[in-house]
Write a structure and sequence with these properties.
By secondary structure, the protein is an all-alpha fold. 44% of the residues lie in helices and 0% in strands.
Length: 104
């Protein structure tokens, strides 16, 4: 079973800005920063496809990438997708076994 972890928001004490999204950061040694999520690739994302497309269009119109805005949006949608699927995720025996075998 392929598994990709998603790390928590970075600890603001690392660089005093809370914006340490480097994949080389010690905070992301075992999981990707949520900024790198491709929301359309998450199971259940089709429910939010129009919202994702609208945000992408809005973000691409801006002259600069807004780290905070994109992160906030991605976390919001990812959390809603999780809530929509939470019962099934928690009932998945393979995932439960993986979590039990890897308590880190």
């Amino acid at each position: 079973m392929p598994f990709r972890g998603v790390g928590p928001d970075p600890d603001p004490s690392v660089n005093d800005t809370g914006s340490d999204s480097s994949p080389y950061s010690a905070l992301s040694a075992f999981a990707l920063h949520p900024l790198y999520l491709r929301l359309q690739g998450l199971p259940g994302a089709e429910r939010y496809a129009s919202e994702i497309a609208a945000f992408r269009e809005h973000a691409e119109e801006k002259p600069r990438f807004s780290y905070a805005e994109v992160l906030e949006f991605k976390l919001s949608v990812a959390e809603r997708i999780f809530r929509d699927s939470e019962r099934g995720i928690r009932a998945d025996k393979a995932l439960s076994g993986f979590i039990d075998d890897n308590p880190w």
